[in-house]
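[Primary structure, fold]
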Amino acid sequence: WEVLERAVELSREGESFVMATVVWRQGPSSGKEGSRAIVSADGSTFGWIGGACAEPALIREALAALEDGHPRLLLLGMDDLVSDLP
C-alpha cells in the first residue's frame, strides 16, 4: 500500500512518475507478482520490484516512458528485452 499511497501524493503534487508492477515471473527471481515500484522523473525509486539486476533496466525504461509517453512491458533476464505496448 505504501507505493500506492506515494503515487497519490506525487499525483497531488503534480509530479511525473512511472508505476512499475511485476506481472509475471519465471524461475529464480527476487521480484514477486504484484511487487511495485515508482520511478520519479529524477530517476529515484520508491518501492521494490526485484534485485539490483532489474533496477537499472527499470529506471532506464521508466525515464524513456516519461519522455515519450508510451507504456512498456519489460522482459528482464537474459537480454533485458523491451516491448512497447499499443
